[in-house]
Amino acid sequence: MRKYICTLCDWVYDPAVGDPDGGIAPGTAFEDIPDDWSCPVCGATKDDFEVHKG
């Protein structure tokens, strides 16, 4: 599964880790995260993320 990076604060969503504090379980693909989820660091929306190239 691909990682995604927030274009506003550079936080990386890693599907292997998920976002437990945000209710996203480890193993959840970015595409499967609910549309109303937001970056846990800066509050950006899913639209502010892009595929992480690293």
Automatic annotation (TrEMBL):
What InterPro entries has UniProt attached to this entry? Rubredoxin, Rubredoxin-like_dom, Rubredoxin_dom, Rubredoxin_ET, Rubredoxin_Fe_BS
Can you name this protein? Rubredoxin
The biological processes this protein is annotated with in GO are: alkane catabolic process
- This protein's species is Porphyromonas crevioricanis JCM 15906
Binding positions for Fe cation per the UniProt entry: 6, 9, 39, 42
Instruction: Indicate the segments forming the Rubredoxin-like domain, all copies.
Output: 1-52
Gene3D superfamilies recorded? 2.20.28.10
User: Which family is annotated?
Assistant: Belongs to the rubredoxin family.
Per the annotation, how and in what number is the cofactor bound?
Binds 1 Fe(3+) ion per subunit.
Molecular function, one GO term: electron transfer activity
Please indicate which superkingdom the organism of origin belongs to.
Answer: Bacteria
Signal peptide region: none
Looking at the keywords, is Electron transport present?
Answer: yes
Keywords from the UniProt entry: Electron transport, Iron, Metal-binding, Transport
Q: NCBIfam families in the record, alphabetically?
A: RubredRD (NF045768)
